[in-house]
Amino acid sequence: MYLNDEYVTVKNTGDRLIDMTGWSLSNKLNDAFTFPDGFDLPGGATVTVYTGCGVNTTTELYWCSLHPVWANNSDRAVLKTASGTIIDQYAYYTYAPRCKTCGDPP
Question: What is the pTM of this model?
């Protein structure tokens, strides 16, 4: 697998610039990408975080992991501020969970 086929896109749905220095994007195993110093996301803009290596730009950032970080069958992406406040999270499953109130599958 080519590691940059794995990615998460984050969108600033507001109209103000956000300084994301020190923010993190993590999976359900708590593997975490940390946004670099001075990274700003303008209002309405998106940034794509790729699992593999590359050259960071204002719209593309690279985790530079040596292995896949997002599970194919189910996982959770959690976006946190530098102080640890959860801003957003997204869980996905390739199959239906056993019940809606049970949380993550085993």
Answer: 0.86
